[in-house]
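chain below, 267 aa
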Amino acid sequence: MESEDPAPATPDDAAGKLKKVIRKHDLTIHAHTSAAPESLLSAWQTLEGQMAASDRLIIDTAERRNALEEYVYDTRSKLEMAWSDFIADADRSAFNEALNETESWLYGDGEDATKSVYVEKLGELKKTGDPIARRYIENDERPRAERLFREYVNGVFVAVNAGDDRYAHIAADELAKIKSDLQAKLDWLNEAIAKINSQPKHIDPAVTVEAITRAKELLSLQITPILNRPKPAPKKEEAPKPAAETKETPAPTPEAEKPEASNMDVD
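prediction:
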């Protein structure tokens, strides 16, 4: 801590000015903090968690109630429109009655029901509604699955029956098995579709869209590796080896007989 004290007067201070002297003193500080006891802090944290859980439960309960209410309205509308052919008349009447009773309960005794009760009631309604929805979806998606299946089978048939050079390296028995498997699966699909078309739409289909799609995938996994098998590399023709040369020792050629030199007398 710094303090200022006036210095004693000196002769130089004739003008009456005082000289400032700065003195430093130690300043003792005592810090005091207030904190709640550990037990009280723990209690507050527990209470905060309980309040957050209570708020979450209130929100979840409201969401479950809204989901049940929405399902009642949406399903009742679909029973009269999109789903009308996919449920028997007697079942439709009973289901409509259950939906109406649920609606009345929601605005009466169920106004302040618990989350678990709303979840349970929605689950009970879906036991009837979900199979109807599945039959509707199957009927909607089946034509595309059937078309893709037939396009694949017909495409492979055309390829293997073309007789071109692409599959000339594949054994005849392998090609015959491919055609046999294709025909068997095509017969299976034709039979299943005929059975489905002969039944009312509120009967579960004999074959699902998933089964049709899976059958096509399995055929492809079986057939594609065979058809894509690369042709074997042509064998390299070896150049004919030259005939072994027989070395013959040439017969010595007789030296031409030289004429004997004749001595001639020169005069």
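Confidence is low (pLDDT under 50) at residues 261-267. The longest strand covers residues 2-6.
thats it, cya
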